[in-house]
Write a structure and sequence with these properties.
This protein is α/β, with parallel strands linked by helices and 453 residues long. The chain contains 18 helices and eight strands. A six-stranded mixed sheet has the order 1-3-4-5-2-6, sandwiched between helices. Helix 5 links the parallel strand 4 and strand 5. Helix 9 packs parallel to helix 11, helix 10 packs across helix 11 and helix 13 packs antiparallel against helix 16.
Length: 453
Amino acid sequence: MDGLFAYEGPEPTREGPSGGSLAGNTHDSAPLAVRMRPRDLDELVGQQHLLTPGSPLRRLVEGDQPMSLLLWGPPGTGKTTIASIVSGRTNRVFVEVSAVAAGVKEVREAISSARNRLASRGQETVLFVDEVHRFTKAQQDALLPGVENRWVTLVAATTENPFFSVISPLLSRSLLLTLEPLTDDDVRGVVERAVTDPRGLDGQVTLEPDALDHLVRLAGGDARRSLTYLEAAAGAALSQGLTKVDVETTEKAVDRAAVRYDRQGDQHYDVTSAFIKSIRGSDADAAVHYLARMVEAGEDPRFIARRLVILASEDIGLADPTALTTAVAAAQAVQLIGMPEARLNLAQAVIALSLAPKSNSVIKAIDAASADVRSGKIGLVPAHLRDAHYGGSKKIGHGEGYQYSHDAPYGIAEQQYAPDVVLAAEYYQPTSLGAESGLKERWERIRRLIRGR
């Protein structure tokens, strides 16, 4: 069965020429990330929200209860690890289907074999599908009978939003578990354990603090990536007869310079400040430079996207009304696509926002209005604007004299909208920059019509 294999017990046996991520990887020359894969839930790093007593994941692994899971999270957060733990800690037969190599035929064969195994021997099957979003609709449809009838316990993993990439029937029949990005401390613990663990480097090398910080930054919350880089750095050191891994060795091994950037320290705030001020100042080159520094240092792309969304209203506003749309689209792309590809979306947004005309009239308007409210300038809502839909409201004057705007010339009626206490306030003061220049003229005409000037 091409693209499909099954195994029972700790030593997997392969049934076909196209294996997956778990079978045949228990040998000493297996990648460090595979050798260090947690063997039980207690060794799983991060994801504490999934590990509480009685949680679905613990019931599946420790209680041996049949249920289908859909694991959604960024790369290197433990999706394949959880599947491996399920396979090693339950009495089920474990079958993995390659989303790249398997077709509908292979999926149906896996379901059929699981059904026969359950009927003849009473033995359940765990069917693991990595990167399930790569399956076509027909392939995902082929999984439904096995999941619906519990001929298999499906464990499917995806890095993409399942509400976009997984068909609704399969999604509704599976329990969705969301894996969170690992923290720097999580990744640091993974690297430190791999240095000393007998399954890992077994103390062959020591890791200098700066080199450890560099590996953590490069990992960007991806435990697998951190171990891949660690293995390369340790191999480079040992090949030179060294037992200590320093920053220089690490830089050469992974071909990445050590960007001095502490996500919790001065560099974070300084670079972020320079990034925002460069966009505000319309220097696209400088803004892209600081974006690259943040990305290469492993800054959370969601943080970058949030800053762009804020800037779009704070520094551009109505001078270019599409700026907010651009920033929000970039933020959504970060969530949908993930890194490293989403750096393109961020770069596009950064350049667009840098070149957009600038206006801070929006933040000035809301700040001025908020200042008046905080100082006690509240005032009563004019009687003609009050709700007049409930019984008795009109008897106390609510809605009396209200002018329906659509009945007025130009759709603008002359009447009072603001409370008396702020009647003369002019919070929104548009600039003459970009698209706001047209709004400036329009708002001045509208204001005169409303206020009868």
